[in-house]
Amino acid sequence: MARIKATADEVELEGDYGMVAGLEVTCAKCGHTVEVFGTSDASERRGGVMLAEDCPRNERNFYVVYGPGADDASPIEYPGKPKKRSLL
Q: Looking at the domain assignment, is residue 23 inside a domain?
């Protein structure tokens, strides 16, 4: 599984009751884009997951999403896996 850069740009998307804020997340490798509602960190993560699920090349990549206006030095950091605790 490769780590691929993706960029998120703020856009206006058509919702059920009018226009709403959203993100267009684009794969830097092939240019495939997905649209997600919302502009939060969770929306950026959702865009990365959608890119992985909908890859036109059928690749299983991990996407590091860079938010609107972010440079390469500050990707969205995902929380690490929780440490296993022993019950003993």
A: yes
Which pTM was predicted? 0.73
Three-state DSSP class for residue 54: coil
**6-40: b or e for each residue (b if 16 or more CB lie within 10 Å)?**
bbbeebeeeeeeeeeebbbbbbebeeebbebeebe
- Judge whether 48 lies within some domain: yes
pLDDT in tens, 23-72: 999 998 888 999 999 988 899 999 999 998 888 888 888 888 887 766 55
Total count of domains within the chain:
1
Supply the range of the domain harboring residue 48: 3-66
